[in-house]
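debug: dumping io for the single-chain case to check the tokenizer round-trip. Nothing else runs in this session.
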Amino acid sequence: MRARASLHAAANPVPGGALVRVAGERIEDVLAFIRATLAPLTALLGEDPWARRW
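debug: decoded output
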């Protein structure tokens, strides 16, 4: 018996950027993947897009 992966991600180029699809069994795993993948954008944006503002 083979174990299933708990997270799947796929990326495809689109004009002007990329389309990234992520699916997971646990929302915590999906959020951790998205945050880690998009972490380099923090420097470009000048602030953490995931930081709470309230």
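debug: round-trip ok. The chain has a mean pLDDT of 87.
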